[in-house]
Amino acid sequence: MADGTSLSVAVIGGGIGGLTAALALRQAGLDVRVFEQAPALGEIGAGIQISPNATRILHRLGLAEALAVRGVRPIAVHQRRWDDGRTLLRVALGAEVEAAFGAPYYHFHRADLLAALGAGFPADRVHLGHRLVDLDERHDRVEARFDNGVTIDSAVLIGADGIHSRVRERMTGPERPRFTGCIAYRGLVPAQRLAHLDLEVVASNWMGPGQHFVHYWVGGGRRLMNCVGILERDSWTRESWTDRGEVSDALAAYAGWHPRVRELIGALEETFIWALFDRDPLPSWTEGRVALLGDACHAMLPFMAQGAAQAIEDGATLAACLGRVDAKDDVAAALRRYEAARKPRATRLQEMSRANKMRFHLPDGPTQEARDAVMASGGDRSIDAIRWLYGHDAFQAD
Ligand SMILES: Cc1cc2nc3c(=O)[nH]c(=O)nc-3n(C[C@H](O)[C@H](O)[C@H](O)COP(=O)(O)OP(=O)(O)OC[C@H]3O[C@@H](n4cnc5c(N)ncnc54)[C@H](O)[C@@H]3O)c2cc1C
Hints:
By secondary structure, the chain is α/β, with parallel strands linked by helices.
């Protein structure tokens, strides 16, 4: 700021979005602390795909080497038909994409990605075991109260606290996230169990009526195959939104599918089952000195593989906006600029993710044949068609 002091920022939530924002804000010269409810930084779930629009940001935050050690670089995305395995679309994701967009496409084990982010940020500025329970904006400070009795204040508070965000609830009132009608089986297979299949380093997506199946390598050195089976279901009646599942149930759900899919499911040691929730776009992401980012404000179905990538972009744009604040009174205006820059793009991806549920799960018939014909022509995945997504520079978005 103009008077030489750094603007203080409290980031609530130490997930992919919160940690990226913390790194970007710190790089922009702000005085940042992270408050995470869990006793340790960690991620549930297994694999995650991170596209060049997000890796570009992580590289600029100094993480290129850490990502290269931990990530897997797929050479292509391969979309296939559910029963006979016929290729519907195959597009390059490796050197071509990196050359076109100046950053690689990666697959990570989530724990590896979070470890890379966490290692880049000072540990003494991450306050674990702090669950935000309430907050109030008073004059030019935001006071945050935690379940362990600690109260802090800061000039800015960022709610990066995920789909069940307490910060969002304080801003817009209680509202349950929406069950999307999809559940996901997730699990990992050790590479040695699959050695006889000589599987390529690609992101595979098998599409069929009412469900699809995704798999890709994760873990430095391709140690594990990450498998995700997504099925349509009318309701989710369990209390928790994630629970232990049975491999035999997953196999039964993929009866009649290509032997490769069934072999992968059968090789799972264990599986977890998730209910997939999203939210409608929020009317606003900011209120005074408080702003939301990541799943807290734009939770989306994973069918564009962009939820975390958009959270990462949020952090970069937030830093670009807050890094230029030169007077106390500019904070709310800077947060509004952040929202204006980010919301249309994140909303578009929320909508595209929902639309892909229909597109990936078409029953066999004329509409599916029309979809396959579009895909056979290269469809929407050419370098030019994807430039708006992968070529975006969120640091410049302000
Ligand atoms: C099956 C599946 C596959 C996916 N695949 C991809 C993919 O390939 N690519 C991609 O980009 N995205 C993918 N996503 C989406 C991605 O996982 C999320 O968008 C992303 O993890 C959101 O990050 P976040 O930091 O906003 O929230 P979260 O990861 O939910 O982190 C929120 C953090 O806040 C903490 N917290 C919550 N409440 C409080 C509180 N009151 N006080 C303090 N701390 C709190 C939590 O403990 C957590 O650490 C997928 C999602 C699913 C379900």
